[in-house]
Specification:
alpha/beta; TIM Barrel; eight-stranded parallel barrel; two-stranded antiparallel sheet; 12 strands; globular
């Protein structure tokens, strides 16, 4: 069976990933901010892992929706890092994390408005020109819309299309948002520019109220999210798929079961097609 699924390179499971005896990903993902300028023991561990697996990067600090100018010094470090590790996919969040001097350490929702859309499209183009490559932007989970003038589907689709960037399609986020905001997940997916999907995230979530799900990245993937993933992969070309797990690493065998389940669904729907990473 062809392998499509990767996993985040977390320090808690770094040795298990490097050894590859239980958890067997096809690639690793990391947040470059957590590794840039790193030296010593963990730099050696990263280099060891990168000698075994292809590396993708999922950033945390670009803050594409912020009102102030892009942090070009930070972006220069990102460019050097992705060049050093031959990163094939550099992705970020369609959100913002800072305003002025305040770093908010959270992924805050961007208003679904025309002025915000135009602002972000311009910023994406400038980032891509600087990096000399397309970036992939993720549809994020959000818990309340802010001054919306259009639907989430229109907002996300237009940003991807008008900026020329790629899409990181987070299937769990689609499921979470559809549940919380009471829209049809499959209808949302059909409105996305699926030809621009370059990367997929799969993750678990936690239902804390009858009408509220929180995107946690620490729980097992549930069957309805696998079903939505199955639906999605029938409509797109083969791309790398990340099992996104930020904590709860006690059961390594269970992580491998999730990787294998993702691979099985991909192989069923992408048989005889070329894999973009491995």
């Amino acid at each position: 069976m062809k392998k499509y699924a990767g996993i985040g390179f977390r320090r808690d499971i770094a040795n298990e990933i490097i050894q590859g005896e239980i958890v067997k990903p096809s690639f690793i993902e990391l947040a470059p901010e957590n590794w840039i300028d790193m030296g010593g023991y963990w730099k050696k561990k990263l280099n060891e892992a990168a000698s075994i697996y292809p590396v993708t990067c999922h950033g945390l600090s670009l803050s594409i929706g912020s009102p102030e100018d892009i942090d070009w010094e930070f972006l220069k470090k990102i460019k050097n890092f992705i060049d050093e590790y031959k990163v094939e996919v550099y992705s970020e969040h369609l959100s913002y994390t800072k305003s002025g001097n305040a770093h908010l350490y959270d992924l805050l929702p961007i208003p679904f408005r025309e002025d915000a859309l135009n602002h972000i499209v311009d910023r994406i183009k400038r980032v891509q020109d600087f990096l000399g490559r397309p970036i992939a932007l993720e549809n994020v989970s959000y818990y309340t819309p802010v001054a919306a003038e259009m639907s989430e589907a229109e907002f996300v689709s237009r940003i991807i299309t008008e900026s020329g960037c790629n899409m990181l399609l987070d299937v769990n986020n689609v499921y979470v948002n559809a549940f919380n905001h009471k829209y049809d997940a499959k209808s949302f997916l059909r409105k996305m520019p699926l030809d621009r999907v370059a990367y997929i995230h799969m993750a678990g979530h936690l239902q804390i109220e009858p009408d509220l799900i929180i995107d946690t990245h620490g729980e097992d993937i549930i069957d309805p999210v696998y079903d939505l993933f199955d639906f999605t992969t029938q409509m797109i070309k083969p791309v790398p798929v990340l099992l996104e797990r930020d904590y709860n690493f006690n059961d390594i065998e269970k992580l491998q079961v999730e990787l294998a389940t993702i691979d099985r669904i991909c192989s069923k729907n992408w048989i005889n097609q070329h894999h973009a990473v491995a």
